Amino acid sequence: METNPARCQIKNVQMTVFCCVAVLTLSCSSLHAQIAASAPVAGKSWNLSLPHNTPFPMAWIRAGTFTMGTTDTEQGRKPDESPQTTVTLTHGYWMGITEVTIGQWKAVTGQSLREKVLQLLNDETLYDFDGKKMKERDFMHFDKNDPDKIMANEDDQLPMYFVSWNEAMDFCKKLTVQERAHGRLPAGYEYTLPTEAQWEYACRAGTTGPTYSNGSLDDIAWYVKNSFIGYTGKGLGNPPAGPRDVGAKLPNKWGMHDILGNIWEWCRDWYGPYAGSSVTDPTGPKDGAYRVNRGGSFGSGANDERSGNRAKNPPNEDSAYRGFRIALCAVQQ
Which residue from 84, 220, 251, 273 has the least number of CB within 10 angstroms? Predict the structure, then answer.
């Protein structure tokens, strides 16, 4: 039987198209599976992969209810830690198991700690500090020509310091854009600073005492009485000390390292009084002059290293004692 060459050619083309479509379909399915596998899943920890293979582990914090604030009998308590308030958080969220490190900051922003400090010292912008327009270096009494006087060590595993509230939020926004572009961001979620309630809930991890530890404060926190012990390199103060590598102290039950001590951590809220009674998903006052920071630092006393302790600072202020920890949580309206 004689074969029609044209008909054979058509069949060959059809078969080729079919094979290409099949391969493309399988490739797309594989790609979707890879993306799904590389995205955070509620109820499970999440290791965010930053550029240059820089790890960024985050723990899942389940929704729940806790008592925010402290009792009148807690040693070292301050008036702004009351009235105690029953807080219900209706959405689970992820929280960095450590403060953002210098290495993680560089991976996201491309900027080193020293570059960040030099930027601060050479900034001629007038900011609002306590109702006065001032350059930040003047408000902080920094010498423009002597960055080493205000800096400690610069290793990648140290918590990133000299970060204002505004800069911490800019970091979170940049990270959100990057992760959304890679398809690794759950719908309705964003990287941001934790609210004050989210921070305290994660810090307490189900405990109600001054700290989450039944042992010594030295086991869980770098603070003024131990931060100089074994410290090497550039330091601040006398005896010299500074931020220490993250993760060296014992975590709480939910995996949070250094959430007390090492470096103060910015929260999302404006500073203001607690509501008292019961509240759901609080986000703090609508406006204010100061932003909240929590947890104490290597230069703080023991009373600052408490789960319920609060501090406040202008949102434009940078300090060697202040950094931040991020959360991945539902977008706030």
Answer: 273
**Separation of alpha carbons 271 and 287, rounded Å:** 8
Q: Is 254 helix (H, G, I), strand (E, B) or coil?
A: coil
Stretch 26-52: mean pLDDT: 66
pLDDT tens readout for residues 123-146: 999 999 988 999 999 999 999 999
- Asked if 91 and 282 touch (Cβ cutoff 8 Å), the reply is no
The stretch 62-75 carries a mean pLDDT of: 97
Task: Return the half-sphere exposure (C-beta side, CA atoms, 13 A cut-off) of residue 332.
Answer: 17
Task: Give the chain's mean pLDDT.
Answer: 90
CA angle 245, 197, 331 (to 5 degrees): 95
pLDDT of residue 9: 54
Burial of 101 (0-12, 13-18, 19+ CB in 10 A): buried
* Tokens representing residue 161 in the block: 């310091």
Report which DSSP code applies to 101: B
pTM of the model: 0.88
Taking the C-alpha atoms of residue 196 and residue 229, their distance in angstroms, rounded to an integer, is: 31
Structure confidence at residue 39 as a pLDDT band (50, 70, 90): confident
Residue 110 region by backbone torsions, left for phi larger than 0, else alpha for psi between -120 and 50, else beta: left
Task: Determine which helix (DSSP H) or strand (DSSP E) holds 138, and give its type and residue range.
Answer: helix 136-139
Phi, psi torsion values for 269, nearest 5 degrees: -75, 150
Centre a 10 Å sphere on the Cβ of residue 229 and count the other Cβ atoms it contains: 10
For Cα atoms 168, 253, 58, give the angle at the middle one, nearest 5 degrees.
35
Q: What's the confidence (pLDDT) of residue 4?
A: 53
Amino acid at 275: A
Q: How confident is the model at residue 22 (pLDDT cuts 50, 70, 90)?
A: very low
In terms of Cα–Cα distance, which of 255, 235, 258 is closest to 245?
A: 258
Name the pairing type of β-strands 311-313 and 277-280: unpaired
Q: What is the dihedral of CA 7, 11, 13, 17, to 10 degrees?
A: 150
Q: Of 55, 186, 161, 151, whose CA–CA distance to 108 is shortest?
A: 55
